[in-house]
Specification:
Oligomer: heterodimer
Structural class of chain B: alpha/beta
Radius of gyration of chain A: 22 Å
CATH architecture of the largest domain in chain A: 3-Layer(aba) Sandwich
CATH topology of the largest domain in chain B: Rossmann fold
CATH topology of the largest domain in chain A: Rossmann fold
Strand order of the largest sheet of chain A: 5-8-11-2-12
Helix content of chain A: 40-55%
CATH class of the largest domain in chain A: Alpha Beta
Helix content of chain B: 40-55%
Strand content of chain A: 5-15%
Largest sheet of chain A: 5 strands, parallel
Strand order of the largest sheet of chain B: 14-13-12-15-16-17
CATH superfamily of the largest domain in chain A: P-loop containing nucleotide triphosphate hydrolases
Number of domains of chain B: 4
Distance between the termini of chain B: 39 Å
Largest sheet of chain B: 6 strands, mixed
Distance between the termini of chain A: 43 Å
CATH superfamily of the largest domain in chain B: von Willebrand factor, type A domain
Largest interface: A-B, 85 and 87 residues
Strand content of chain B: 15-25%
Number of strands of chain A: 12
Order of helices and strands of chain A: EHHEHHEHEEHEHEHEHEEEHEHHHHHHH
Shape of chain B: flat
Chain lengths: 371, 592
């Protein structure tokens, strides 16, 4: 995704211009082949949860917690190569969709109607928010290089701009500094990023799928942040010997010959990409029977989840799952499968409950939706 | 494999291809022995290999790199300053006093180790710089369990301690022989399977160790000129990588074979367990205990068992002893990290960096950071004639503060029954002695006593000795034992302390026998039920806890109580004030 803006033509508005630099030299050396998504063994729930987020980006993202060394990061970083390209307005710094240009897009508002119609395909961005990132790089700030070299004010979009319409991945999210969490929550809630700094006053759309991974043992997440995530998945190391052997063999094969390994999985990636595209189109045509809606509501009432977000997310997840299967309508089995990931992080914690909230969830699930 | 070879072998492997292996966890005090091993490693490295030391108290900026202000101004264009991790590319990075390192610093190291590159998004610059290094973690912690987060240790294939270094030394410090690695050997399936199986048998569940072991085995094979990985490579690699991580002893070979037979018989019953995928794993939150797998190896060959038993033979004796005793091993460190992290924005303490922000909101201005932020923009700012540097509000930086963590020892004293007077007077003595000892650390103590139908806070958290003497001068004793209520009140006091940013430690002076329930009614059964419920509640809040049983014959009940509290149990029959206070004092130093 580093070159997702490579085609942006330099604009030459004299006073205020926005840029996205190309640092080809450094990036070429740093670029590494990523382990293919389809080559990952096991971790079905996490993998499908990510696929649901691709089918329906409005789902609200995914939080992955659990054992170390389970390939959390590998799976998420493998997304970039898997995702289908997306149509954008040519030259738009914020990657607006040609049919749905955002009102607040600072870049498109300067374009004529015919310029806005020019379409350009770009890879869907998967942006890594590294630990130690500073606020200016996250929200965007003046372009330092242009200020120093040319003495001009130019806005350089930050990570929130780059992640628009794509994915924003935060590894070790529980270690993210508080003031960055604030910025993130604000953008996620409003869908736009507002910069007031150095005499700049810029707003641009910033809608992204938030993907976080972390270990709650190393620090709890703020409830507001927790609630932002659509789905939450807890991963465990596989204990099946055959699975473990397969994981290690593939990892070894990849380390030995990354290029050959990636090309070996190319057909699988292609097939999955097509399946995801079909599911995206299929999603709108799906019907949701009232009986399923009622059951979802019943389940949330029985669990006492706060607010409506749990119910909405559960329905969206079930719909996306049905779309992915190519089913005609959403069924109770979709609901059953995604109830725990959609609701487990929204339950009020009961301090006297030793087994954790998952046990309670499963009990209630069995009562409301017996198999 | 002997320890002599181990220390030498690790140095050799690290030196053969710096950056290929994640690194080594070196658990030893800073003495000549450790220095000589480090020297040996340094000398074995190919000339020109980076050897970068991370200074104590390093900040994220130094580690990651960022904008070089002086060079930027001189060149009139942004110039990057390389961070320590980037400079250590294809070399060795040494983290000294790792047990004191900040959780954030350790997390940064982990993230870069995973990616093999530094991803910088700081101070107006964005860069991706390759950084593959081998990390040498110098851990001088002297507790039995390492204070380092298990997530970091998981990424380090090798482990060395004083014992293995000492044995290496007595063998006359052979210089690690250097060799060039050229790995042509692919791993046969059986080799991978043997490594996976033996990891599980030793209770190692993370996927990283077997991956590391395979990589080590390949290097060893290459070193010996084998065309593919052979059995002795696997054994050696297994001993190197698994030894320090083993958490259980595998069943002896005969038992294994037997179990396999019985296994195949009741195979059908075993399969009734619901498949793993359909029900996402629940409960069992503790991270190193996924549901124990069936320990038998499916169709395990004689070769695998041979490899496993060879690895077990290679395990150091003291480790075997500890495993046999069922003790947990290194790499917990969870509590420490948790405590280091969860904090509201502090308004006092020592500075730990700065962030953009307005000092008028109550945080101190960081002048240096503010000027740093302002200077690069001078060219595009029209300056008023009188000032040298034009500073805008967006430049203002405030200091981020980390409050000094004080410890608070919250004593809960069972003042009921006949032992009351003795317990109370010892507790009082301990409190006084503690205060005298930890005056310098500015620690506090509090005291809760419970007797009759209820509990009371005799002494709210304080540092004042005279206040302690006044409050504790006349302590009533006798009556029933409302243990549950006493624990509840103690936890409440401890919780308050934590909210203020202090690190509490609860010390229960009790024999663990309650006979008054939460509602004040008598009856042992109900009282014990309540006690257990309250203990579980406290355990969930992860309040550090120490149960001290000072009755002449220590009771099983007190031990069970400590277990329910997920705390520590200490039997001190006939303890006096000094013994209690020194036990508590050493643990308070740890909670910091």
């Amino acid at each position: 995704m580093d070159d997702s803006y490579a085609s942006v033509s330099e604009m030459s508005t004299p006073k205020l211009v926005a840029t996205q630099k190309q640092k080809a030299g450094n990036k070429a050396t740093a670029r590494k082949l990523v382990y293919p998504f389809t080559a990952i063994v096991g971790q079905d729930v996490m993998r499908e949860a990510l696929m649901l987020c691709i089918v329906d980006p409005g789902l609200g993202g995914l939080l992955v917690t659990g054992d170390r060394g389970t390939g959390k990061s590998t799976l998420i970083r493998a997304l970039a190569a898997l995702l289908p390209d997306m149509p954008t307005v040519e030259g738009c710094l914020y990657a607006c969709h040609p049919d749905r240009i955002a009102d607040d897009c600072a870049s498109c508002s300067t374009k004529t109607a015919s310029q806005r119609r020019k379409t350009h395909l770009r890879p869907v961005p998967v942006v890594d928010l590294p630990l130690g990132a500073t606020e200016d790089r996250v929200v965007g700030a003046l372009d330092l290089e242009r200020a120093l070299v040319h003495g001009e004010k130019a806005f350089e979009p930050g990570l929130l701009a780059r992640a628009h319409r794509g994915f924003l991945y935060i590894d070790e999210i529980n270690l993210l500094e508080d003031h960055l969490v604030d910025v993130l929550l604000d953008a996620a809630a409003s869908g736009e990023n507002v910069i007031e700094r150095d005499g700049l006053s810029i707003r641009h759309p910033s809608r992204f799928v938030l993907v976080g991974s972390g270990n709650p043992e190393e620090g709890e997440l703020r409830p507001q942040l927790l609630d932002r995530f659509g789905l939450s998945v807890d991963v465990r190391t596989p204990t099946e010997i055959s699975t473990r052997v397969e994981i290690i063999k593939r990892r070894d094969a990849f380390d030995r010959d990354p290029k050959g390994f990636v090309s070996q999985y190319h057909p699988h990636e292609e097939a999955l990409r097509n399946r995801l595209l079909l599911a995206q189109q299929h999603l709108a045509k799906l019907s949701t029977p009232d009986s399923v809606l009622e059951k979802a509501a019943e389940l949330c009432v029985a669990l006492g989840t706060d607010g409506l977000r749990g119910e909405l997310t559960l329905m969206r997840a079930a719909r996306a799952a049905a779309a992915l299967e190519g089913a005609k309508k959403v069924t109770l089995s979709h609901l059953r499968r995604w109830a725990i990931p959609a609701l487990r992080h929204r339950l009020r914690r009961n301090p006297l409950e030793e087994a954790g909230s998952d046990a309670r969830l499963e009990r209630t699930l069995q009562e409301v939706l017996p198999e | 494999m002997t320890a002599m070879v181990q220390a030498e072998c690790i140095a050799t492997l690290l030196a053969s291809d710096p950056g290929r292996f994640g690194g080594v966890h070196l658990r030893a005090s800073a003495d000549a022995l450790r220095a000589s091993w480090l020297d040996a490693l340094k000398n074995a490295l190919p000339s020109g290999t980076p050897w970068i030391k991370i200074p104590a108290g390093v900040d994220a900026d130094t580690l990651l790199g960022g904008l070089d202000l002086a060079a930027t101004l001189a060149a009139s264009r942004p110039v990057m300053r390389q961070g320590l991790m980037a400079r250590a590319h294809r070399g060795v990075l040494v983290l000294a006093m790792a047990e004191r390192a900040d959780a954030m610093i350790l997390a940064l190291l982990q993230q870069v180790m995973d990616l093999g590159l530094v991803n910088i998004e700081r101070d107006g610059v964005q860069e991706k710089i390759p950084a593959q290094f081998s990390l040498v973690v110098l851990d001088e912690g002297c507790e039995e369990d390492s204070a380092l987060p298990s997530a970091l240790l998981d990424r380090l294939p090798f482990y060395l301690d004083t014992h293995s270094l000492a044995r290496w030394q007595t063998e006359g410090c052979p210089a690690p022989n250097r060799f060039m690695l050229e790995i042509k050997s692919s791993a046969p399936d059986e080799a991978v399977k043997a490594l996976c199986a033996s990891a599980l048998q030793l209770g190692i569940y993370s996927m990283r160790p077997p991956i590391q072991a395979l990589s080590v085995a390949q290097s060893l094979a290459a070193r010996k000129g084998h065309s593919h990985v052979e059995q002795d490579d696997l054994i050696e690699a297994g001993s190197l990588v698994y030894a320090a991580r083993a958490r259980q002893l595998p069943p002896p070979p005969e038992a294994l074979a037997q179990e396999q037979n019985t296994e195949s018989q009741d195979h059908s019953d075993q399969q009734e367990v619901p498949p793993q995928d359909a029900t996402p794993p629940q409960e069992n939150k503790s991270e190193d205990l996924p549901p124990p797998p069936k320990t038998s190896l499916p169709e395990s060959g004689a070769e695998e068992r041979e490899i496993l038993s060879q690895i077990v033979i290679g395990l150091p004796d003291d480790l075997l002893a500890r495993l046999a005793a069922g003790m947990s091993l290194k790499g917990s460190g969870k509590v420490a990290t948790t405590e280091r992290q969860r904090k509201a924005i502090p308004r006092h303490g020592r500075p730990v960096g700065s962030r953009q922000g307005d000092p008028r909101r109550g945080l101190p201005l960081d002048l240096r950071a503010t000027l740093r932020a302002a200077i690069p923009w001078q060219k595009i700012r029209t300056k008023p004639v009188t000032t040298c540097i034009a500073v805008r509000s967006g430049d203002l930086h405030v200091k981020r503060l980390k409050p000094r963590t004080r410890s608070t020892a919250v004593f809960a004293v069972d003042a009921s029954g006949s032992a009351a007077l003795q317990r109370l007077s010892e507790a009082k003595g301990a409190v006084e002695a503690l205060l005298a000892q930890c005056y310098i650390r500015r620690d506090q103590v509090a005291l809760v006593s419970f007797r009759g139908a209820g509990a009371e806070i005799l002494l709210p958290p304080t540092r004042s000795l005279s206040r302690v003497r006044r409050a504790l001068s006349a302590l009533p004793g006798g009556g029933g034992t409302p243990l549950a209520r006493g624990m509840q009140l103690t936890a409440q006091v401890a919780h308050e302390c934590r909210r203020k940013g202090d690190a509490p430690l609860m010390i229960m002076l009790t024999d663990g026998r309650g006979n008054v329930a939460l509602d004040g009614t008598g009856g042992r059964a109900k009282a014990e039920q309540d006690t257990l419920a309250v203990a579980q509640e406290i355990a969930l809040q992860r309040l550090p806890c120490l149960v001290v049983d000072i009755s002449p014959q220590p009771q099983e009940r007190a031990r069970n109580l400590a277990h329910a509290l997920r705390g520590e149990y200490l039997a001190l029959p006939l303890a006096n004030a000094d013994m209690i206070s020194s036990a508590v004092n050493s643990r308070m130093a740890n909670t910091q």
